[in-house]
Amino acid sequence: xxxxxxxxxxxxxxxxxxxxxxxxxxxxxxxxxxxxxxxxxxxxxxxxxxxxxxxxxxxxxxxxxxxxxxxxxxxxxxxxxxxxxxxxxxxxxxxxxxxxxxxxxxxxxxxxxxxxxxxxxxxxxxxxxxxxxxxxxxxxxxxxxxxxxxxxxxxxxxxxxxxxxxxxxxxxxxxxxxxxxxxxxxxxxxxxxxxxxxxxxxxxxxxxxxxxxxxxxxxxxxxxxxxxxxxxxxxxxxxxxxxxxxxxxxxxxxxxxxxxxxxxxxxxxxxxxxxxxxxxxxxxxxxxxxxxxxxxxxxxxxxxxxxxxxxxxxxxxxxxxxxxxxxxxxxxxxxxxxxxxxxxxxxxxxxxxxxxxxxxxxxxxxxxxxxxxxxxxxxxxxxxxxxxxxxxxxxxxxxxxxxxxxxxxxxxxxxxxxxxxxxxxxxxxxxxxxxxxxxxxxxxxxxxxxxxxxxxxxxxxxxxxxxxxxxxxxxxxxxxxxxxxxxxxxxxxxxxxxxxxxxxxxxxxxxxxxxxxxxxxxxxxxxxxxxxxxxxxxxxxxxxxxxxxxxxxxxxxxxxxxxxxxxxxxxxxxxxxxxxxxxxxxxxxxxxxxxxxxxxxxxxxxxxxxxxxxxxxxxxxxxxxxxxxx
Length: 630
What we know:
Layout: E1 10-16, H1 21-34, H2 47-70, H3 76-92, H4 99-103, H5 111-137, H6 141-145, H7 149-171, E2 176-177, E3 180-186, H8 187-199, H9 218-233, E4 260-265, E5 268-269, E6 272-273, E7 283-292, E8 298-307, E9 319-325, H10 350-354, E10 358-363, H11 381-399, E11 403-412, H12 414-428, E12 434-440, H13 446-457, H14 466-477, H15 489-498, H16 503-510, H17 515-518, H18 528-538, E13 549-554, H19 562-575, E14 581-586, H20 591-597, H21 599-610, E15 619-623
Parallel strand pairs: 9-10, 9-11, 11-12, 12-13, 13-14, 14-15
Antiparallel strand pairs: 1-3, 2-3, 4-7, 5-6, 7-8, 8-10
Helix pairs in contact: 1-7, 2-5, 3-5, 5-7, 5-8, 9-16, 11-12, 15-16
């Protein structure tokens, strides 16, 4: 469906037809049965007439965009006025062109003309929903509750009609590509439409992604479709950008770092948190708070808090505090662990910790979930460490003496790097009460990890999504770095699809590509601004630690290489001989398995930190011994 205005960028959108078509098909019968419009025989309907109506609704779209841009907070009167103007178009249509008439099997229209008119109505309804969505996002819950019930019903009906048109599109077998329908419309319009459908509870599974490029065959497309569908099934909110929890309030500038902007206790039914797959007998909250950017300016960040039923000894003492720092989830707002039903790493991290009786504070990292100008800054350990400190301050202000002042940080991969950076930061700028860090497979120096992955791949697949994520993130921070100057045409054509998913989708899209298929130019890895990024944003370098640290590393780690982790460990120990560090090496275990196996070591280590068990002021390496066969 083409609905372009001059100067409006458009994107090709894919609407998943499988899985919802049976439910949507019932809507056609519902609307047709409730129609009170007598169908005319519109033999006067011509292609020119349909184009004319499409132009009218397209100009209406432009007017809606203009109003939204020029009026940040749409008043009720303005909303009503624009709605009335939009409704004038529908009222002026003859009976045979009304949507209800198109629902009748006796409408007398050839299929092509009926399709064209349905497209026109879809653009019109999208305008109505876009306006309504803008109004919803700009007003408080109490204001919305005062809205006339009839108005809410009208917009629910609009969503119902949109869903019906989607069913017609499918049932009439419009052009499909591997069971996917191609619709073209302005990307901002589509986002608002989807958000509106979700807000009003219409059950439509929508997958927004650009059309598959020629370099992705049927097998490639099927694997991407499956990966994206699996990730979407795990999202709590199908569209974070329209979820009011993650949005910035109008007075966001009034908050300082460490302040709570918004707190939401997730409802529980018989010890099962609604919408999440958290362990039984746990309590989940999510919150928006203020962190800082690299210049010390406050920026919003989101996080979750997972509380156990009781503490480690079943007493009423304060819960021991652990901050969990997650590994790579993706690079968009949608990929926030607080928006994942399993909180992303499940039993590999937060679930295992809460079941030990710890209060688990888990920042998403600024830009995942929260809306910040520069977007999520992937692998920016120095800034992730700020997110940790300020999330801890925020929870302390909320729970006060229900949690201990003492705390430990635990992380894996990107989170392992973050835990290491937290230990370094606490030496310079203490949050207070810090007992130590557990750092699993720490991705400390991307500019060393990435080239090693390229060398090890040889002529085969690199299995690399990380370097693309890193390059994209840096490009948003340094104007001199432009993604299109370095990635291959294959990657450039697939980025819009990858942007609709998270780590799983990105790994599927890029994982089987060789180095020449990934990049046409790899010189970015040595660019001065990229090196500056690793020093300032990532925080690379040998720094003194504030407290003891336990490092866990598998020798078969395919993402964070054991030789690099051991080098960083050795550098810290040799530069600062009084460091209290222990490195556990797990033979033949990969990136995730080593950290899971390491629970046997790191869970007792955390407990000992809270119980003041002393450690020798030295660095120790231990290669884990595997018991022989029984």
